[in-house]
Amino acid sequence: MKLQHYLGGLEGLGPVTYEKRVFVEPWETRIFGIHVAMMALSSQLPLPATGSPFKTIWTWADLRKGAESLNPFDYFKFRYYEKWLGGISGYFVEQGYVTQAELDARTQQFLNASPPSPRAGADPAIDQRINTYLVEGDSPKRDSAFSPKFAKGDKVFVKDVPTIEHTRLPGYLRDRIGVVDTVYSGNYTYLTSTGPDGIGEAMPVYCVRFDPDDLWKGNTEKNFAIYADLYESYLAKPN
Amino acid sequence: MTTPSPAFPIETGAPGSENSGNMRFSRRNLLIASATAAAAPAIGTAALQPAQAQTMAIPQRFAFPPNRETLNAARAMALESLLIEKGIITDKSVDGVLAFFETQMGPFNGAKVVARAWVDPAFKQRLGDDTPAAIASLNLPKGMAGAEGEHMRAAVNSPTLHNLVICTLCSCYPWPVLGLPPYWYKDPTFRARAAREPRAVLKEFGLDIPESVEIKTWDSSAQIRWFVVPDRPAGTQGMSEADLAKLVTAEGMMGVAKV
Prior knowledge:
The complex is a heterodimer.
Chain A: H1 27-41, H2 60-68, H3 72-77, H4 80-94, H5 100-111, H6 125-136, E1 141-142, E2 155-158, E3 177-183, E4 187-188, E5 205-210, H7 212-215, E6 224-231, E7 235-236
Antiparallel strand pairs in A: 1-4, 2-3, 2-7, 3-5, 5-6
Helix pairs in contact in A: 1-4, 1-6
Chain B: H1 27-39, H2 51-57, H3 68-85, H4 93-103, H5 107-119, H6 121-129, H7 131-136, E1 152-156, E2 161-166, H8 175-178, H9 183-186, H10 188-196, H11 198-204, E3 214-219, E4 225-229, H12 241-245
Helix pairs in contact in B: 5-6, 10-11
């Protein structure tokens, strides 16, 4: 079990932080921009090729896997974009686009306040592709023959699937019963296969309503319902 | 020997003050305990190694380097610089992305959607029933079904219903209409607590939702990116749609504030 999958309902955390800024340190803007560029250049997108040597897949699933694979204490220790910085830098090193030594040396140069000016002149098609990705997106909706097993109003049991590294099933819903509120039209693929966790292939998705008192007996609030969007493979008919 | 500073305060009184005397783990008691351990006869177990060795073995799990943000900044700039140098991205890529979120995708779009819903009940109904079609019927910038907005749903507030959007697994957010998620939305404390005690959380945000009003919390865990259509504020009769849009905030469209 990974604590990161079980955030919903966790107690003892103290007050929320009402910080409205998106980026709380200026450097965070740079790693965000790099991430969007990687998403746009990711090789599974049906967009025109560019001169960028980036030829691998980078999706939200890769970013999320990184955060979900952290030591849970590190997950809470590091700020949101610190986790991005670690995960994205690690990916570029693992995939061989840059070496750790290059990264360390360049970091040291910036710490010494003598940054080199990077060579400009990369392919402008790269920035065109980034813009196209932002405008067109990457819909996971697929035409496939699966018809939904459940209908609006059906009770559904949420399985406790064997998640290895990544899931879209919140921990607090596992082994609980909810009621289908919406059957989404069409089938939806996930960005990557999560293996025995069960998503990846296009399948129906439902919005399922849960009674919070079934989730946290006697330890929640009144006149309140919680809804989650769940892939069909996470659901079963209750016994 | 040096005593490592604790990662979180374990004293209530000032260091060495008498106020800390009745705390079980006052610094004074810790020092006495360390001295006792150091003086204890060695029996050859790791547990009774000299005090310094013991403290050295405890990982500094929650310590940050003193130059935490300088180092983060240098690492981020180093990565960007190397990626530009290798032609993976251009020297305009990151700034281009940031500019896109300044001008094309942001809460200014969502505000127009909400203002239209306030002045046009048929549009409001359609927005709740078929969000993408309703948004596509407005004259908004290209990209309203773009990245992180491919499948959006609007949760419409009423005097008896208050909606709240969360993402307990990560930070799913409807980029085309709201732009990028603010810090509070991504903070693990908000994500954890809003699932179980939304009314208590909203109160901390300064929003008092009485128990007579139902709360629906929407946990974004698959393809849908949710946003809230807040109620039109009182005393805005006669205002133009454009002026109404100026009242709408990102917080209102995530359900943590009234407009």
